[in-house]
Write a structure and sequence with these properties.
Length: 286
Amino acid sequence: MSDIEENDGLGKEEPLISHLIEMRDRLVRMVIAILVLFICLFPFNNTIYTWLADPLLKHMPEGSSMIAIEVASPFLIPFKLVLMLSVFIAVPFLLYQLWAFVAPGLYKHEKRLVMPLVVSSTMLFYTGVLFAYYVVFPLVFGFLTGVAPDGVEVATDIGKYLDFVILIFFAFGIAFEVPVATYILVLLGLTTPDNLVKKRPYIIVGAFVIGMVLTPPDIISQTLLAIPMWILFEIGVFLSRGIERDRKRKADAEEKQHRNVVPGMGPSSSSNSIAAPSRSDDEPGP
């Protein structure tokens, strides 16, 4: 009897152990992917940092340069940049590993929904980062370096600059997720496109408030963050209307089917169907 109980206990523990082993394997793959990218990129760490600092260097006064305040900054700051860049590039692979671990426990309709959302959110985040680098940085740095008082030399620390650009990258990357967030809110039934349209003035004000908090204290960067957020909100509302149309179409189809079935059933047939329902093929026989 004790042997049977031990076997039953092992059988219950096996699924949990197998999940933990799979999670460990996928985490190891994620770490290895980041490490491989880091090893490939590290020889070019100074070149990568120069590329990242190029929008600022173009607007600095002639003859000036960036500085390193800390003793180890010339090594640690490019090291930190390459490590973060490795994680940034590996995001699609990391999300795939996460998806492969979670997917077996999802229903088919959930799989059809989650994968497009993951892909679209990743692409929107990358788009926000590129928008910040190629559009926002030249305008912001041109403004900030141009308003320096006479007798003040612009000499930015490389560590402070890296922290600044990472903050801006994340701010614009997250801001560009607005269409996905809007779509998910409507999908979960927390709101409707019409309600969102009614709250448009508050959302526009909120976009400018977010731009004021997440960006430097200049009107250019605030506006460049707020306006795309507003436009992306409108795109999210437009796409979420498809959810409402699908729900209405399904409701109309169910109502039509109900109307077609109920009139064809007489009182006797209705009572018989309730008293003795027919056995489906999936149910076991007597």
